[in-house]
Design goal:
- The protein is α/β, with parallel strands linked by helices.
- The chain has one domain: Rossmann fold, CATH 3.40.50.
- The protein contains nine helices and ten strands.
- The protein has a ten-stranded mixed β-sheet, sandwiched between helices.
- The N terminus and C terminus are likely disordered.
- The structure holds S-adenosylmethionine.
- S-adenosylmethionine (SAM) binds next to loops.
- The site of S-adenosylmethionine (SAM) has 20 residues, from loops.
Length: about 325
Amino acid sequence: MPKTKDVGTSEQHTPIKHAIMREFVAKEVRAANSLGWIKRLVWIDLTAGNAELAHGTDWSDSCSPGILASCAVESTQPVIIDLYEKNPDTYIKLVGNLDKNLPALGYRRASDNGWNEWATANVRLRAWERDGREAGISHVRRGDAVLVLNDPNSITEWAMRRTFASEINSIRGVKGIRTLSCVGFNVSGIKRTPFLRDDPEPQPDSVRARSDWYGLIRSITDTLPDRLDLMLAGFARDRSQWAYLFSSPTVWRDKGEEEAVIAEAFTAASERHDYEYAWAKRDREKFTRLVDRRILTRAELAERETPALPFEESGDENAA
Ligand SMILES: C[S@@+](CC[C@H](N)C(=O)[O-])C[C@H]1O[C@@H](n2cnc3c(N)ncnc32)[C@H](O)[C@@H]1O
C-alpha cells in the first residue's frame, strides 16, 4: 500500500492537478458529443504556462495546452481554444512547444499565433501574450458552452476577473460556463499577507488582503446557475495549501462522478495523498470550513472557535 504523506513540492501537486484538469475537460467533450444542444465549445486557458512536459511522457496529459488540444480533437462540435500567457519569455516557450507538439495531434500552424486541426477543421487554437484578466469574450455566442482554466502560481495571481463568469452568463443563449481554478493559498508563505487592507478605498479586483480572497471564490459561487455546483478538493496536509475548485453539473455530483475523479487523482500517484472536499451548495458548512482553513491562519481559526478573552494574547498570527 503506498504511503500517505505531507506534500509541499510541485512534483507532487502537478500530476494531481493535471489528472483533475484532464477529466474536467474530457467530460465536457463527452457531454457535448452526446447532448446535441451544445453547438460549440469555447475554451479559455487564462494561465497557459510554457506547455512543457511537466511529468510523465505524454504531452497530452502533462500541461494544460496539451490537455485542451488533445481533448478538442475528440469533439464532434467545433472547438475554439484561447491560451493566455502574460510572461513574454514563457510565451515564447509556449509557442515553441505548441509548434513541436501540436502536429502529432493533427494540427498545423495557420498564423503567427494560431493552429488549426487539419483533418476536420473542427478546432482552432490561438495563443495570446496577454494577461488572462483581460481575456476577450466577444467571440462567445448563442449555443456555446464555455470552459475556463485559471491556474496561477498562487492565489494572489488569480487570473480570472471577478466579473468574468457573470459576463459570460449574460450573453444571450450561451449554454453556460464551467471553471476550474487551481489555487495555492499558502505558496511561499503568502498567508503572512494581512487579513485586512489598510487602504480605505476598496479596489474591486484586489487580492492584497486575505479578506479579498473570499471575494474570488464568491465570484464563482454567486454566479452558479441551479444546475451547477462547485467542488473544492484539496490536500488535507500541505504547506502550500493547494486546492482545486471546479464547477460541475449537479447530476454528475449526485451520481458521485466527481468524487470518483478526485479519488483517482489523489490516490493514483505513487504516493497516496490524504485529501478533503466539499460542494459549495450541497455541503455548505463544510465548504465554508474548508475555505476558512485555507484563508485564515491557525490562530485566527482558533480565535473563531473560542473567542479570546480581552486579557489573552492571540498567539502566532502567521502560522498556516
Ligand atoms: C502554474 S503555471 C500554469 C501551468 C499550466 N496551466 C499547466 O497546467 O500546464 C502559471 C502560469 O500562468 C502565468 N500567469 C499567471 N498569471 C497570469 C495572468 N494573469 N495572465 C496570464 N498568465 C498568467 C504565469 O506566467 C505562469 O506561466
